[in-house]
Write a structure and sequence with these properties.
Radius of gyration: 12 Å
CATH superfamily: Glutaredoxin
Number of strands: 4
Largest sheet: 4 strands, mixed
CATH class: Alpha Beta
Number of domains: 1
Structural class: alpha+beta
Distance between the termini: 10 Å
Helix content: 40-55%
Shape: globular
Strand content: 15-25%
CATH topology: Glutaredoxin
Number of helices: 4
Strand order of the largest sheet: 2-1-3-4
CATH architecture: 3-Layer(aba) Sandwich
Length: 86
Protein backbone atom coordinates (compact mmCIF):
# COMPACT_ATOMS: atom_id res chain seq x y z
CA UNK A 1 0.00 0.00 0.00
CA UNK A 2 1.30 3.45 -0.94
CA UNK A 3 1.97 6.05 1.75
CA UNK A 4 -0.91 8.50 2.18
CA UNK A 5 -0.31 12.09 3.31
CA UNK A 6 -3.12 14.54 3.91
CA UNK A 7 -2.90 18.24 4.67
CA UNK A 8 -5.81 19.04 6.97
CA UNK A 9 -7.18 21.05 9.87
CA UNK A 10 -8.93 19.96 13.05
CA UNK A 11 -12.37 21.28 12.10
CA UNK A 12 -12.65 20.34 8.43
CA UNK A 13 -15.61 18.09 7.56
CA UNK A 14 -14.13 17.38 4.12
CA UNK A 15 -10.94 16.16 5.79
CA UNK A 16 -13.01 13.76 7.90
CA UNK A 17 -14.87 12.57 4.79
CA UNK A 18 -11.61 12.05 2.88
CA UNK A 19 -10.14 10.06 5.77
CA UNK A 20 -13.30 7.94 6.00
CA UNK A 21 -13.20 7.22 2.26
CA UNK A 22 -9.51 6.29 2.30
CA UNK A 23 -9.95 4.01 5.30
CA UNK A 24 -12.93 2.32 3.63
CA UNK A 25 -10.56 1.47 0.77
CA UNK A 26 -8.06 -0.22 3.04
CA UNK A 27 -5.78 2.61 4.15
CA UNK A 28 -4.68 1.94 7.72
CA UNK A 29 -2.36 4.90 8.23
CA UNK A 30 -2.65 8.50 7.05
CA UNK A 31 0.10 10.99 7.79
CA UNK A 32 -1.81 14.14 8.66
CA UNK A 33 -0.16 17.51 8.33
CA UNK A 34 -2.24 19.92 10.41
CA UNK A 35 -1.84 23.36 8.88
CA UNK A 36 -3.88 24.87 11.73
CA UNK A 37 -1.29 23.67 14.25
CA UNK A 38 1.74 24.25 11.99
CA UNK A 39 0.98 27.44 10.00
CA UNK A 40 4.30 27.31 8.12
CA UNK A 41 3.14 24.06 6.54
CA UNK A 42 0.40 26.05 4.75
CA UNK A 43 3.06 27.65 2.55
CA UNK A 44 4.49 24.19 1.89
CA UNK A 45 1.05 22.88 0.90
CA UNK A 46 0.43 25.80 -1.47
CA UNK A 47 3.86 25.33 -3.05
CA UNK A 48 3.24 21.59 -3.56
CA UNK A 49 -0.36 21.80 -4.77
CA UNK A 50 -1.11 25.33 -5.94
CA UNK A 51 -4.20 25.17 -3.73
CA UNK A 52 -5.19 26.87 -0.48
CA UNK A 53 -7.98 24.55 0.72
CA UNK A 54 -7.90 21.36 2.75
CA UNK A 55 -7.80 18.48 2.52
CA UNK A 56 -5.02 17.97 0.03
CA UNK A 57 -4.31 14.27 -0.42
CA UNK A 58 -1.12 12.67 -1.69
CA UNK A 59 -0.87 8.97 -2.46
CA UNK A 60 2.78 8.13 -2.83
CA UNK A 61 4.18 10.97 -4.94
CA UNK A 62 0.84 11.63 -6.66
CA UNK A 63 -1.19 14.68 -5.67
CA UNK A 64 -4.79 13.49 -5.78
CA UNK A 65 -6.40 16.78 -4.70
CA UNK A 66 -9.18 17.48 -2.25
CA UNK A 67 -12.10 15.36 -1.10
CA UNK A 68 -14.12 15.89 -4.30
CA UNK A 69 -11.12 14.85 -6.39
CA UNK A 70 -10.49 11.79 -4.21
CA UNK A 71 -14.17 10.77 -4.38
CA UNK A 72 -14.21 11.23 -8.17
CA UNK A 73 -11.08 9.07 -8.48
CA UNK A 74 -12.81 6.42 -6.38
CA UNK A 75 -16.01 6.61 -8.47
CA UNK A 76 -13.91 6.11 -11.60
CA UNK A 77 -12.41 2.96 -10.08
CA UNK A 78 -8.91 4.45 -9.97
CA UNK A 79 -8.40 5.08 -6.25
CA UNK A 80 -7.73 1.50 -5.11
CA UNK A 81 -5.23 0.79 -7.92
CA UNK A 82 -3.39 4.01 -7.03
CA UNK A 83 -3.34 3.02 -3.37
CA UNK A 84 -1.91 -0.36 -4.38
CA UNK A 85 0.88 1.23 -6.39
CA UNK A 86 -0.51 0.55 -9.85
Amino acid sequence: MEKVVMYSTGVCPYCVAAERLLKSRGVTEIEKIRIDLEPLRLDEMIARTGRRTVPQVFIGDTHVGGFDDTAALDAAGKLVPLLNGA
